[in-house]
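User: Second chain of the day. Same drill as before.
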Amino acid sequence: MTPKNSCDGSHRSSTSLITIGEYKSGSGDLLCPGYKFSVPDGQLSVGCYPFAMHMARSVPWMVVIVDADVYLRSHDCTQTSQGGTVSAVLPCPSCCTLHNHSTVMGIHHHALDGAAETTPYSFLAPSHAINSLRHKDELIENLCT
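Assistant: Same format as last time:
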C-alpha cells in the first residue's frame, strides 16, 4: 500500500513520504527531511539527479544525500515537518512545493524518458552521461571499422 503523500502531483513516480526515523529535534518536533527525489523502480536517485546543473543554474534548493537517496531541501525550508510520524515524516510546505517546480519536473521526466541527445552535459544525470558516452563510443567504433 502506498502511503498518503501531501506532495502528490501528476508526474509522481513514487511517494515522497520520507521513511527515515532520525528526524526528531531536541524538543520532540519532527524535522523536515526535505523533498525526496523519487525515480522509477530499478533506478537509483543518485544516478538520475543532474548534480552538475548546480554549477550552471541557480536553483531554490540544496541537495542532501542519505544512503543512495536524494532529498531536495528548499532554501525556504521551515525545518519543521508538516506532520507524519517518526517513521514517516512529511516535508514542510516549502520543500513540498519543489515537487511542482519546473526544473524538478524536467529532471523527473528525464529520469522516466531519458535525456535528449542535445541536452547540455551539465544537465545530464550520471546515468544519462554514461549512456551518452557509451553511444558515442559505439559511433566511433563504427567509424573505425
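The helical segments are 45-48, 53-56, 93-96, 102-113, 126-144.

User: Great, on to the next one.
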